[in-house]
Amino acid sequence: MAGPSLDDKGVIAPCSKCGQKVRSSFARLGETVRCPRCKADIAPPSEPIDVPTAALFDALVSSSSLPLVVDYWAPWCGPCRMVAPELKKIAAAHKGRLIVVKVNTEALPDVAARQRIQSIPTMALMSGGREVARTVGARPAAAIQAFIDQAIGQAR
After folding, report:
1. Is residue 52 part of a domain?
2. pLDDT given at position 144
3. For residue 105, is it left (φ>0), alpha (ψ between -120 and 50) or beta?
């Protein structure tokens, strides 16, 4: 079963019971959503979500009710590939409290340019439609967690 994805209104995730695709609007991320078909609760995203377009990036950042950890990466970047499993750990540990998204700077150079991404991997914490903090370089999940904790403390 495929993982979560984005459309112009929210995060689309398959129901673990019946497979029905269910949308959680960006403004209601973190709230409980029920499958319209089988009425099962849909768990919040627990893995990183790829951002396919600049428009979806903008919609997500401007409307998300949860903080976002944005991973700016590229397929050719070795350190970026090393960070990917660490970000999966972060996404799983924080499901329902924050969303981890991945922006491929090769596929979305306009987003990378607007966000002034100069080296990868770069991670940013976005909250309330703006960047709160940024860090550059590969790091283990514990160091990513420390970055998030510090950034969320700054955002308050």
Report:
1. yes
2. 97
3. alpha
Give percent of the chain with pLDDT exceeding 90.
Answer: 81
Q: Which residues are catalytic?
A: 77, 80
Mean pLDDT, the chain, rounded, equals 93
Its pTM stands at 0.93
Question: What CATH number should be reported for the domain holding residue 82?
Answer: 3.40.30.10
CB atoms within 10 A of CB 132: 18
Residue 8 within any structural domain of the chain? no
19 assigned to some structural domain: no
- pLDDT value of residue 155: 61
18, containing H or E segment: none
Question: In which domain, by residue range, is 126 found?
Answer: 45-155
pLDDT (0 to 100) of residue 156: 60
| Alpha carbons 24 and 42: distance in angstroms, whole number | 9
- Sign, CA torsion 12/95/58/110: negative
Residue 13 lies in a domain: no
Q: Are 27 and 61 in contact (CB under 8 A)?
A: no
